[in-house]
Design brief:
The structure is a homodimer. Chain A folds into two domains: about 160 residues, Sandwich (Jelly Rolls), CATH 2.60.120.10; about 90 residues, Winged helix-like DNA-binding domain superfamily/Winged helix DNA-binding domain (Arc Repressor Mutant, subunit A, Orthogonal Bundle), CATH 1.10.10. Helices cover about 40% and strands about 20% of the residues of chain A. In chain A, the strands form three sheets. A four-stranded antiparallel beta sheet of chain A has the order 1-8-3-6. Chain B binds a DNA duplex through helix 9.
Amino acid sequence: MSSAANFLPTSASVKPPILPSRHTVHDLSIDHFDSEMSADHSDSHAPYLHLQARQAHQRMLEAMQVIRDLVKPTAKVVRAGDVLYRAGQPFDTVFLINAGAFKLVSRSLDGREQIVSLKFRGDWLGFSGIANGRHACDAVAMDTGNVSIIPYDALAEGCSRHTPLMSVVHSAMSTEISRERESLMSVCTLASQARVAEFLCAWARSMAQRGLRADELTLRMTRADLGNYLGMTLETVSRCLSRLAREQLIRFGERGRRQITIPDLARLENYVISGTAGKSTHLQ
Amino acid sequence: MSSAANFLPTSASVKPPILPSRHTVHDLSIDHFDSEMSADHSDSHAPYLHLQARQAHQRMLEAMQVIRDLVKPTAKVVRAGDVLYRAGQPFDTVFLINAGAFKLVSRSLDGREQIVSLKFRGDWLGFSGIANGRHACDAVAMDTGNVSIIPYDALAEGCSRHTPLMSVVHSAMSTEISRERESLMSVCTLASQARVAEFLCAWARSMAQRGLRADELTLRMTRADLGNYLGMTLETVSRCLSRLAREQLIRFGERGRRQITIPDLARLENYVISGTAGKSTHLQ
DNA sequence: CGACCCTTTGATTCTGGTCAAGAATCGTGG
DNA sequence: CCACGATTCTTGACCAGAATCAAAGGGTCG
């Protein structure tokens, strides 16, 4: 895991980062369904990926292919701020993200709001609604994107007919469970700065797995969102990022402080692990 | 090192007799498979349940019935400390809890340990292993109990054959996702005392849903476990419980401080909600 | 250009973590 | 049945990290 550092894609084929903006029209060339879904696009990135990330990427592409073949879903374009579904709405569809980024926001009976998950290309949206027929959270686009709309009935029907499809769906749910747990682990066991660091690492790994640049992240969220997701205040997030930058573990892009460069991912990962970082809620 | 926690004898034929060694003899009348599964037992409790809890209870019983009818699993008795599976072991079976309580423990690459979930009768164990063929965490029994052993292949096969079974399984996974998120919400948005309070409320509701007493909880875990699960130190847990007791929101049982009485659940829930409790990682 | 939001940074407060001592409980062996 | 040692739990004193309050700088958009 340590040598994760050098799989930089030649920026030749790589696209300019999108400016995070609120509700303006976005350049679709990057995140557009077709361009990002095409096999040659993935090929152009694959050689630079680590074996593991590459395999994951491959599995994702295969899964998406299975869905397209068996379910033949319709697609839909979304822009930053668009809401795919809201908590409480009757559940009947799930979504597969072809491009873009989404946040899932839960609300408790009293007004507490919590970003419980971030989702990207290849992830599914809506599974949490299966259990009681209503969506359990809001799904909000953080950027221009594209999703496949998949009626749950059709999906279930397809699952019972095609074992590979069921396998894909079960894997996706299983992964979602695991990822949720990783978040919990992070929040419970890491001090704030390490938590921010790990968040960046996770984002980077996540991008790598999707065949995207992993060394230059463009966070599509405010410090407040970030803090909420990580269980700290926006001021603390800001301070932690500044400190990480001061310690040369990250750099801010010239295109604004939401763009973050990770010069050496292994070193950042190491900071999390060996860090001064513990929160000591030790077991036994 | 109490739980040297080795695997139970896995010999297909013989079930080990229930012989609690270092743990006190438990009264099995409540948690025993047969008694708790019997319809009249559930009837004897149902009248005291809220409508919602009762429906949930009903759904759980139906689901368990479906499993027994369609998969015909073998069962296995476990004692406190027994380990059903460990992180990293090849995944091939899931488990359905007939009785007892389990904790799921995740470990990060560096040594951090985190109890990511608590599971009870009607819950499933092992779903998180589907995605990459290996279990993602340890499953440890916190008490004498009984699980159905369900080979995943058989389950998948059954799912493709019987829609209701698939429905049950999908619901179970969906629920697991939602619950994981609730944990995250709790850890991220509540101050420690409110978090402890909410934990107790959740446990109580959970018991109610299973047709068990909801006003007298017997926590089967140490303060350290509790703290770990809730993301705080054991000392903080202790202080919070003491404070809750001082404020009459809970009472300690005469059978030890792991037994907790909730005289008025609504009041405790209200404390969480209206509480002095917020952690203010407010969104926007 | 000005209004608004986002971000950073500092000063201060306070919750919760750390360290330590003592009490209660459990399990074991006599 | 009791005594002893080992855990587990509670409580206090102290301290650190993160929340809160406040103000100023930067970007973006109308």
